[in-house]
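> Could you send the DUF7159 domain-containing protein prediction when you get a chance?

Sure thing. Input:
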Amino acid sequence: MDIALGVSMTPTTVRMVLVEGEKADGVTVDHDTFDVTSGQGSATDQVVAAILGTKESAAEGGHHLLSIGVVWSDHAEAAALRDALITHGLDDVLLVSESHAAAALAQAAGRAVGHDTTALLFIYRDTATLSVVNTTDGSVVKVLSRTLHGGDAMAELTEMAAAVEAQDPVPQGLFVIGSGVDIAAVKAHLEPLVRIPVSAPDEAGMALARGAALAAANAPAFEASTTALAYSQDPDGPTAGSPLITPDGMYIERAPDAPDGEYVDPDARTELQVAEPERGRPFLLVGSAMTAIFVVGVVALVVSLAVSIRPTADQRPSPAEAAIGPSTVDPEAPPPAVPEAKPAPEAKPAPAAEPAPEAKPAPPPAAQTIKPPVPVAQQVPQAPRTVAVEAPKPAAQVSVPAPQAPAPAPEAPPPPPPAAPAPAPVPVAP
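Output:
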């Protein structure tokens, strides 16, 4: 026979129930309750020992223990229990909160009577929470929550009962479950206040343990329905969750790499909630990386163009080269002036040009030497005089070679031209 085990653990009491059926939807096979004593170890150790003993007994009786669910009420105790279970090789145990187990039981109760939606009033310690459970997929929508220790608890429950009928659509039934509360008295108080049927579990003490067995047996179905339909069921309020998302905000999720039922610590629920939006981040990273590469390429291209343009721009307006160009052209016009162009600054001094007028008086003494032969001076010697005058004119055109004027002066006075007229007196004799 296939059976499921549900365990309800509190700091002082442990309740266990065996339910028939693969989905834990059958009758109760057996149940047990024992108090936690300090002499026999912690509550965690005693729960682990009870689970191991139940597995051995089921195997000896020929039963197949398919699933195990444990209800916890404290995060620290749940973490310690998880570690202890893994240490003993019990990695297929589902840890659920009390509100989670209550929602699973409300879904099973609604399915049994054919309700599409069932209102769940869960009273836990000093808090009452009203939720709406969808029978089809197990999704849970939290309506409101009230604290009961500050005033008249029944008055608060009356207000919550009125909120049930204010829902649209109105749930088809109200299921009351709690821990450490007289559920029978609460049910009797609420029945005349609402028009929908009010129900409660027959064995209130074992209700949470049975809910844990239901949650463990139907965990994969609850996970799928919660992921797909949790928000669609509550357009006007926050989603408290399916049997894996509890009305009091506690989450217990199956580990992605644990096919046999290992579950993640409840503290990690926020990471599981934001896992879906993070799926698109790699694409954004890829897009941003490609954009960055494109921008870097454009910047590199602009920089390379700027570097290649600067040298050409510097060469075009080079004023220094423009000043040097004319100096190279000037020496090419007069080849002999190339060596003289370098000492050009020496030709600038004005005193060098002043000796030129002193050279001009030099021709008068030459004329005095020519005066004795008067007839010759009238016929031909005047031409050389003009030649001597023309020689200084080119020197006057170039200001630099002014000091060279004295050099041609001695060449003009050479007596070769005057020597020609000397024999002229021969024809005078006849």
